[in-house]
Structures are given as structure tokens and as C-alpha cells.
Specification:
single chain, about 150 residues, alpha+beta, 2 domains, 4-stranded antiparallel beta sheet, 3-stranded antiparallel beta sheet, 7 strands, about 30% helix, about 25% strand
Length: about 150
């Protein structure tokens, strides 16, 4: 490499960046100032979206979409909205009854017996997890990962 090729042209723009809390400013060698906003870190608490956003998340998988659509059809939009509001941890906590049990069997191919205390499974198509648990008082809890 020759020394002539190693020297930068005068037209080359040098940008220096200085960070400030959530904004950053960039100054060029011409004295122009450019500002850009930075996104906040992803360490914020999990934010649950509306029913339409939840349905869009399930739409990518045919089995999960069938499950959520049938669940919403049998239990109603209000039940899904309650599950969305309760699901701040990245899980939908759904009503467990005979209809939900049949939906799990039809959508995921898993027959959950009444005698089960705990069952963890996942969708064979997209690996979305679901968990069935029976509490100490006998109440059943069914959760599906968002």
C-alpha cells in the first residue's frame, strides 16, 4: 500500500459521537450537529398488549391459532381480555374447564386426565409452551406462553 492511498481525502466526513442520558448527538467535522434518540433498554417489565396483538402473536402457528380462536369462540372476548390483563408475566392464564380440555386435545394432541397434578407440554409446530397445574385447594390453572 502506498502512502498516497493511506491519506484520507479532505471530503471525507468524520463523525464523533457523545452520549447523553437517552439522546446522543453527533458532530461532523463541518460543525453540523445531528441528534438521534436511543431506545430504552429491554430490562423493563413485560408489557401485555391488546387482544388483537395477542391474536396476531398466535396467528403464526396453525395449531396455536386454532386453539386461541376456538377458546375465544367458546369463552368469549371478555374472558380472553381478562387473561391478557392477568398475563403480565408472559403467559395467558386461561379458564380451565371441559371445553378447554377438549381444545388442548384437538389443537396440541395431548389428552389431560383429571388425575394429573402437573403437565408441561409444547406445540409440535412452534414449540409454544403450555402448563396445566392443580393447586392445593383443587383449583386447576392452565397457562399458555405468549
Amino acid at each position: 500500500m502506498k502512502d498516497d492511498e493511506a491519506v484520507a481525502d479532505e471530503a471525507t466526513e468524520v463523525i464523533t459521537v457523545t452520549e447523553q442520558s437517552t439522546n446522543s448527538t453527533a458532530t461532523t467535522n463541518n460543525g453540523q450537529v445531528k441528534k438521534s434518540k436511543r431506545r430504552k433498554s429491554k430490562s423493563q417489565p413485560y408489557k401485555v398488549d391488546s387482544n388483537q396483538d395477542i391474536k396476531a402473536r398466535f396467528a403464526a402457528c396453525g395449531r396455536c391459532c386454532y386453539f386461541l380462536g376456538s377458546y375465544t369462540s367458546t369463552h368469549g372476548e371478555a374472558d380472553l381480555e381478562t387473561a391478557v390483563l392477568d398475563g403480565a408475566s408472559g403467559w395467558l392464564i386461561l379458564t380451565w374447564d371441559q371445553q378447554t380440555r377438549n381444545l388442548v386435545h384437538k389443537a396440541f394432541g395431548v389428552r389431560l386426565d383429571v388425575d394429573f397434578y402437573h403437565y408441561e407440554g409444547c406445540c409440535v409446530a412452534c414449540c409454544r409452551q403450555f402448563v396445566y397445574e392443580t393447586g392445593d385447594a383443587g383449583e386447576a390453572v392452565f397457562r399458555v406462553q405468549l
